[in-house]
Design a protein that fits this description.
Strand content: 15-25%
Number of domains: 2
Radius of gyration: 19 Å
Shape: globular
Number of helices: 9
CATH superfamily of the largest domain: Dihydrodipicolinate Reductase, domain 2
CATH class of the largest domain: Alpha Beta
Low-confidence stretches: none
Largest sheet: 8 strands, mixed
Length: about 325
């Protein structure tokens, strides 16, 4: 294991990019070297805030630096696969925010490149790291809980193209490829390979061009079921809420808080070294680089999620010409 600092470039210094930078500040032996963003002014401002010595609007500038070991990509979805491949080709470890890609073919192409290089490649499936979901996972692994059903609501009120900070976004978010990916991967992580999947969607927004409501059904090889409802039309409460129904208990996760089926809160503060899922995700990325291993939520570990999403996308296209 190397004790040398892990030198990081971050691309996409928007709302989520800053969450990663805030988490990285809490991890020993990490140096933020480069900030890449859509405008030079934003890149320079964020670099100054977090002590990075380099900023640019071009990812290639960071990839050309010999003082960058790894890259965290928080860029628009449509760029993820191509940029992840570029990082691997440049010899850099990479963590790409969810989703890995917006097509199954692109996800497979990234996987092939990772296998060719052997570098650490991780996708930001944060739910695996949230202490509430970790607590449930530990019970499942210990054999104390067998998941029977996961009921999930992912609800936002979004009529304009804005990010988590309420700022204008340069790209269009998507219920299936982005928001559903969190739950599809989590369900497989908690219950096993997904063997059946169905989807329906509501009308498309006239300006954004995306469906604003979606309903997904999943079945795992264990027989467990998942029902996922997603909406950009929901005017509160906002967020994602998970109800785990098991053979020995029911648990409800609301962000990082966990409750039993009778709404008694469960203390998850000692599950990990932090309650911040993004920080825990970044800690795993850094540890995997130092230890020369693939991380939890490695590309290989989450790849099957994108197979399932690809199948659901094909269903929607067959139903109404969606793409």
């Amino acid at each position: 294991m190397s004790n040398a600092p892990v030198r990081i470039a971050l691309a996409g210094a928007g709302a989520f990019g800053e969450k990663h930078l805030d988490g990285l500040k809490n991890i020993a032996g990490v140096e933020i070297v480069s900030i890449i963003s859509r405008t030079g002014e934003q890149a320079a401002a964020v670099a100054a805030k977090y002590g990075a010595k380099h900023s640019s609007t071009e990812l290639a500038d960071a990839l050309a630096r010999d003082d960058v070991d790894a890259v965290i990509l928080c860029t628009p979805t449509q760029m993820h696969a191509q940029q992840t491949i570029a990082c691997l080709e440049a010899g850099k470890h990479v963590q790409v925010e969810i989703p890995l890609s917006d097509s199954w073919a692109d996800a497979q192409a990234v996987m092939a490149k990772q296998q060719e290089t052997g570098l650490v490649a991780m996708v930001g499936h944060t739910r695996r790291f949230n202490p509430s979901h970790q607590w449930v996972h530990k019970r499942i692994v210990a054999g104390d809980l067998a998941l029977q059903q996961l009921d999930v609501q992912t609800y936002f009120f979004r009529r304009k193209n804005i990010n988590a900070k309420g700022e204008a976004r340069s790209w269009t978010d998507h219920l299936l490829w982005h928001h559903a990916a969190h739950t599809i991967d989590l369900f497989a992580y908690q219950s096993g390979k997904i063997v059946a999947a169905n989807v329906l969607q509501g009308p498309r927004h006239p300006e954004l061009g995306i469906a604003m409501d979606m309903s997904i059904q999943l079945k795992a090889e264990t027989g467990a079921l998942c029902t996922l409802s997603l909406s950009f039309n929901n005017d509160g409460p906002l967020g994602t809420f998970f109800r785990y129904i098991g053979d020995t208990g029911t648990y409800i996760a609301r962000y990082d808080d966990l409750f039993d089926g009778r709404d008694a809160q469960i203390d998850v503060s000692k599950v990990d070294v932090s309650m911040n899922g993004i920080e825990l995700q970044d800690r795993e990325f850094i540890a995997a680089i130092r230890e020369g291993r693939q991380p939890n939520s490695s590309l290989a570990g989450v790849l099957d999620c994108y197979r399932v999403i690809g199948e659901l996308a094909a269903q929607l296209e067959a139903q109404d010409g969606w793409s």
